[in-house]
Amino acid sequence: MRIAQIYSLVDPITNEIRYIGKTIMPLSKRLSTHYRDKHLTHKTCWITSLKKVGLKPLIKSIEICDEETLTEREIYWISYFKEKCNLTNSTNGGDGLPIGFKHSGETKRKISECSKIPNSGNFKKGQKRVNSEIAIEKTKKKIIVYDIDGNFLEVIKGIKEASKKLKINRSNITACLKNKLTHIRNFRFYYYNENYRMKINSIKNEIIIINKPIEEYENGILVKEYNNAKEASSVLKIKYYTMNNILIGKTKKCRDYPDKIWKYKE
Questions:
Q1: Does 233 map to a domain?
Q2: Is pLDDT larger for residue 213 or for residue 180?
Q3: For residue 45, is it within any domain?
Q4: Is 257 exposed, middle or buried (0-12, 13-18, 19+ CB in 10 A)?
Q5: I need a surface site. Which of 124, 125, 183, 187 has the fewest CB within 10 A?
C-alpha cells in the first residue's frame, strides 16, 4: 500500500525547515531525487551550498494523509510554514497532476492520434527525415550563464553555441552543468528554467582558495609544490575537477596516483 505524506527538508546546520513537499515515495528515495535535481531553483541552490561542505538536507514526515487530500494538505502546510520559516518553495503548492490522475478517454484518443504522425526527428529505417534542422533545434537544451558574483548574464541555445560564443571547451561546460566544476574563467553554467534571472550566491571567495598553492605528498612525504590546482592537474594529466574534489575532501584519492595526496599550502 502506498503511503501519501507531506514532508519537510530541514537544514542540518540551523535545524530550520527550508522546503515543504508531498510524496508517495519512501522518504529516503524522495530525498535522493532532490539531491540529484539539476534545475536552478532556490531549493537546489540551497542544497548545492550544503553539498560543498559535505552535508545533505534532513527529510522529515509532517503528516500522513489520503492521496485525495495530499495536494490540499501541501498547500496548507506551505502557507503555515511560510510565516515561520525561510522556505525555498517557488510556489504555494498543488503543482503538477494529482497523484493517481488518469487521462480521460478523449485525451487518450488525441495522444494516440498524435503518436501516429511521422516522426520528424528520430526516424525509423527507410523513413525520410523531414524538417531535420527544426528537429535538431528542439533537442537543444538552453544554457543559463552567470558570472562568479552570481549575476545573470544571458541564455544561450545549447552547449555547442555556448562553446563557440564564449570560446570554452564543450566538455568543460558539460562538467559545470553536472556540478563537477563550479566555473570556467568568469562563467558559471546551468540548464535553463523559469527562475533563470534570480541572483545566486557568489563564489569569489572559493576561487581565491582554489588559486592557492598546492603541496603534493607521497607516502606522507612532501615531494613537490604547484602554483595552483589547475597547474597540478595539467602536469599530472588528471582532470581538473578530480584534483579539486580531492582538495575539498569530496574524494580521498586519485585512481592513477594511489600513493599521492594533495593539500592546499598553509
A1: yes
A2: 213
A3: yes
A4: middle
A5: 125
